[in-house]
Amino acid sequence: MLASPRAEGTPRLVLDWLAVRDHEQAVLFLTGEPPDLLADFRSTGRAIDVGDAIVPGPRKFSRIMGLVRNRVREHRPDAIVAWPMGFSHWVFLGARAAGSRASLLSHCGNPPGNGWLHRLVLTWICFWTTMACGGRIVACSRCLQDQYRAVPLVPKSIVGFAYNCVQAASIASRADGTRRSRPRTGPYRAIMVATLESHKDHSTLIRAAGILRDRGASIEIVLAGAGSLEPSLKALAAELGVGTMVAFLGARRDVPELLGQCDLFVLSTTANEGRPGVILEALAAGLPIIASDVEPLREVLENGRWGTLVAAGDERALAEAIASAARSGARDRARIADGRSHAAAFTPERMIADYLHEAGRDALLAQAVADPR
User: Which CATH topology does 9-165+347-370 take?
Assistant: First the structure.
């Protein structure tokens, strides 16, 4: 179950799952808007259902439960994965209302909030409802698992973890194909791929662009992604006079090709980050990485082994790291190969196997391996 086919990390993660043919899979969207990736989902040949449950006010919760109840009765799944954790308890209540005994799993991709409402009340509601329904929470990293287990009165026993996956070989091939046709001349180009929302930190990167411009650096900053902060971020770029230096591309379906057109991947973000799969995509594409030094990124980059970590929110440190990467120019072929090998270990098959293990469904995995469809 997904909230929508919006062009962002989680729906792309599910598209990777759908490429694994060892299991029968179906997708339910709570809403079809925005329809960015809907055609991609329909092209998989899987059963794709699109609901209209996301409406203003509390009516959405009963609509989610009703939509899920009807689809669960139709598909009779063995396991249900709710990707947006904020709606997962309503999904699970709808599944149980259908009489389903399916394993229930909630994907947890972001840390608990800072205030009482998010960190405690909403977490308690989600986690205790999940436990009451017999479900489990699956964090996308060990540090995220630890953060939720540290919330007071959270049922720690239901919180597991499984790393996100990446289609490394496909991304490498598509990025390399674009790279070969890229003109050899032109400015150094850095890219950030992320939704334009408050748990990311595009503003620090835009301010770093201003510092680079003042230093006379010939660098382009490419921002791929859409979100509610787009108008304010564009206004900030205009205010700082970097409107021609920073390009806003909006939601894109050709991320591997975009990575192949660039020289550097940057992820400026906040402590509310989860474990962004685009980091692995950038490694698979053969790009050097600069990222904010926050706990989830320290984990995925293994404390700087796979990329450069800079202090979060420090535009001067970020500008210096980008300038240093641009000065070095040449890419370390050995490190690129090692980074690609690292990314290649996080396969969709491995992620699905980890989820089935969390669900106590190892028998389903063994059956799929022994008799693939």
Answer: Rossmann fold (3.40.50)
